[in-house]
UniProtKB/TrEMBL annotation:
The protein, known as: tRNA N6-adenosine threonylcarbamoyltransferase
HAMAP family (UniProt xref): TsaD (MF_01445)
Domain Gcp-like: 23-314
UniProt organism field: Azospirillum picis
Reaction(s) this enzyme catalyzes, per UniProt: L-threonylcarbamoyladenylate + adenosine(37) in tRNA = N(6)-L-threonylcarbamoyladenosine(37) in tRNA + AMP + H(+)
Gene name per UniProt: tsaD
Listed EC numbers: 2.3.1.234
Gene Ontology molecular function terms on file: tRNA N(6)-L-threonylcarbamoyladenine synthase activity
């Protein structure tokens, strides 16, 4: 089985060709970073227009790299939501057009399901597993019990982790997108233990997250330093922020592991995915936690953690081989909880 995947829900235009033998035959991603950087964040209208401009060419490139024609495909999958609706419409309409023209099945993929199932494309991960999904818009702990079978243990009560990284980067004057820039600054820190930040929700019952207080604490430290931060201040604050986030994520995961093991005494892996899973300090902290609980730890390669179309093609394969597909009147969904 060979499937074309399309991703257009945020600021990456992406197309990929993947087989049910877990082979990524092509995986092209075009970042719109330069289009949005002047505005310090993603502008939905600009994103939608850029998807429209580039998607056809990217699909052609992916098909050429895979060495196949549309007639060789078994299905077309596209992100059907959640996300910026203008972009989602571009991806869904393009996928439907290919499906209609070639008489192929169309699969509308939940973007979060794409992140959730990536580990089964890159590694031999069986259901059930415990998933920490951390991206720009989401922060959730889920038991993944099967395709379409997700049980949520916790979510954020304010900001998503990626959002907290992006906002902290902005207030430290590091720029956009924040995650990778905070990580780089933290790696440069000379005195990473200099600032003590509050650890929101640490030790509290349940598996929910909160990050807005942390961001406020970083702002307060920055103000106390007189507003204009030296590079050393900035790097030390970035390091404090990153290690606190890692600590909070590990604490929440430890609680979720207990619940997961009650429901699934046979065990399962701890999987982390989504854009923030590209962070090496966070991966390392979670890997230590998994070791402690004798769980295999799985984190997809960095380029498959951030938004891409291979994960959409793969989620399409997982659904299609269970006999699931969607009608051509599927309506794109700005909101679509897992
Ligand atoms: O999954 P993703 O590419 O898009 C969404 O679905 O949201 O995640 C993007 C988010 C951004 O907030 C970005 O700052 C964050 O992931 N991110 C990182 C890193 N790389 C990307 N956060 C921390 N460390 C990183 N290295
Ligand atoms: Zn994403």
């Amino acid at each position: 089985m060979i499937v074309l995947g399309i991703e257009t829900s945020c600021d990456e235009t992406a197309a990929a060709v993947v087989t049910d033998a877990r082979e990524i035959r092509a995986d092209v991603v075009l970042s719109q970073l330069d289009d949005h950087t002047p505005y310090g964040g993603v502008v939905p209208e600009i994103a939608a227009r850029a998807h429209l401009q580039h998607l056809d060419g990217l699909i052609r490139r992916a098909m050429a790299e895979a060495g196949i024609g549309f007639g060789d495909l078994d299905a077309v999958a596209a992100t059907g939501g959640p996300g910026l609706i203008g972009g989602v419409i571009v991806g869904v309409m393009t996928a439907k057009a290919i499906a209609a023209a070639r008489g192929l099945p169309f699969v509308a993929v939940n973007h979060l399901e794409g992140h959730a199932l990536t580990a089964r494309l890159t590694d031999d991960v069986a259901f059930p597993y415990l998933l920490l999904l951390v991206s720009g818009g989401h922060c959730q702990l889920l038991a993944v019990e099967g395709v379409g079978r997700y049980r949520r243990f916790g979510t954020t009560i304010d900001d998503a982790v990626g959002e907290a990284f992006d906002k902290t980067a902005k207030l430290l004057g590091l720029g956009y997108p924040g995650g990778p820039l905070v990580e780089k600054a933290a790696a440069r820190a000379i005195n990473p233990g200099r600032f003590e930040l509050p650890r929101p929700m640490l030790g509290r019952p349940g598996c929910d997250f909160s990050f807005s207080g942390l961001k406020t604490a970083v702002r307060r430290h920055a103000e106390e330093l007189g507003g204009s931060l030296s590079e050393a201040d900035r790097d030390d604050l970035a390091a404090a922020f990153q290690s606190t986030v890692a600590e909070v994520l590990a604490d929440r995961c430890a609680r979720a592991i207990r619940r997961f093991k009650e429901d699934h005494p046979q065990g399962g892996a701890l999987v982390v995915s989504g854009g923030v899973a590209a962070n090496k300090a966070i991966r390392a902290r979670l890997s230590t936690l998994a070791d402690k609980h004798r769980m295999p730890f799985v984190a997809p390669p960095l380029r498959l953690c951030t938004d891409n179309a291979a994960m959409i093609a793969w989620a399409g394969i997982e659904r299609f081989r269970l006999g699931q597909s969607d009608p051509l009147n599927f309506a794109p969904r700005p909101r679509w909880p897992l």
